[in-house]
Amino acid sequence: MAVRIRLTRAGRKKIPCFRIVVMDSRKRRDGAYLDQLGVYYPSQQPAVLEVSAQKALEWLRKGAQPSDTVRSLLSREGVMIQFDLLKRGATAEQAAAEGARVKGAATLRSQTKLATAADKKKAKELELARAAEAAKAAAEVAATKAAAEAAAAKAAADAEASAAEAASASEAASE
Question: Is 57 in contact with 86 (CB distance < 8 Å)?
Fold first, then answer.
């Protein structure tokens, strides 16, 4: 019997949740499984992964082959490096320390990735706010300029009218 460590889908439509399980490779995806090692919630930010490292190591020692996706998830948790070190003869403490180091590095990478995405989003929002402020300031400048031109035109018209009035008054006085 070929035993595989793979994902079975749970959750509902558009909100996936996966169980990390050990099962016979001939079984269907969501069929009966031998043991559950953990769960994976990819739709949460950041993605949540809960794995029993001891159970996973036990099944790997027994010869269970992880699928590509599960191998990636177990590597992120530091389980695969622990398995490799134990297979090469390292002590359990050394393997656990290296696994913890790998898991910490993966956590730091995901936090940095989220922080970078959040920074980009904030920068974009700030840029949009600045553009809106600049457009508003330009509109105010245009309105002020139009008002100044209108006032200058009115002053010129008033000056012309008073000059015409003065000319007509001087003509009336000369007659």
Answer: yes
